[in-house]
Write a structure and sequence with these properties.
The protein has 2 helices and 3 strands. The protein is of the alpha+beta class. Helix 1 runs parallel beside helix 2.
């Protein structure tokens, strides 16, 4: 279809999401000790594969979260199909849905990871 550009970089989108979720969880836990949270972006893909009849708008996100010597994978995917040229609004909606899912799953993963005892070397 062409090039899709985002208003913010993928790194900014993901780091804002992870920082917000981790601050929220740590605030509820009342932890005063700083935590090191690492997030590896394995996949952040926006694709618009087409056939003769339709276009799909797909967004796939895969993250790897590391906290306290443990890690969890987070995956999210959203898709919509259209029989006309995909609009900017449609692409935005699909990307936002995948980000919403990734945020929800990241929150669950961070909750689990931050509840674990620290692993020391």
């Amino acid at each position: 279809m062409g090039r899709i550009s985002l208003d913010r970089t993928v790194r900014e989108l993901v780091s804002t999401m992870i920082e917000t979720k981790s601050d929220e969880i740590l605030g509820r836990q009342g932890g005063s000790q700083p935590e090191e949270i690492a997030c590896e972006i394995r996949t952040f893909e926006i694709a618009t594969p087409a056939t003769l009849l339709y276009w799909d708008v797909n967004t796939n996100i895969e993250l790897l979260l590391r906290v306290r010597g443990q890690e969890r994978s987070v995956s999210a995917m959203a898709t919509e199909r259209t029989y006309i040229w995909p609009s900017e609004e449609m692409i935005t909606r699909v990307v936002n849905e995948a980000l919403r899912q990734a945020e929800e799953k990241s929150g669950q993963a961070l909750q689990e990871l931050l509840a674990l005892p620290r692993v020391t070397d």
